[in-house]
Amino acid sequence: MVDPTAQSSKDELICVGLVGSARGLKGELRVKSFTADASALASYGPLKDETGKKVFELKVTGKHKEQLVVRIKGINDRTAAEALNGQKLYIERKLLPKPQEDEFYFSDLQGLDAELLDGTPFGRVIEANDFGGGPFIEVKTINHGTVLVPFTKAAVPLVDVAAGRLVIDLPLGLLEPGDPEPQDGQDEGPDGGGYDD
Fold first, then answer.
1. Residues 8-40: pLDDT tens digits?
2. Which domain does 59 fall in, by range?
3. Cellular component GO terms, alphabetically (predicted)?
């Protein structure tokens, strides 16, 4: 099991949530929680922005699909709520529990060297995230540009934070090229979809 949290490089702040769209007219917001127990997001106390200066006091009022519905102190209408769309919510690392075995804060993965199963250097982890489709790591590879690797036990069978490395078992097709993008001036078909007759 993975605790999908992300990080800010500033003052050991860990990203525990991401504000989504407004809900209703009275300032409620949808929030994606990155904590292992999503409903615990508001129990950590006031959350901060990435600078650590702006504070957000949350009260969970419900759930909507995979997201929490919250009220944030001082946000009382839809306009104010919409202004927070995309705001990341952080907490000081020291306030979070120590990860269990096979759990990792995404901040611990950033900067790790990535190797293949046979020990071949593959690249370096530049970011880890979960936007709702499951956790993944973004790896800047030595020979293949930047690739997204699912952060699963099958695709990443070994993570050794102390040694500064992780091992990737490349999923089938991960490095295969996709269809080329249409070039300017090419016929993209009647709907602009790029299909031929």
1. 444 488 888 899 999 989 999 999 888 878 888
2. 6-94
3. cytoplasm; ribosome
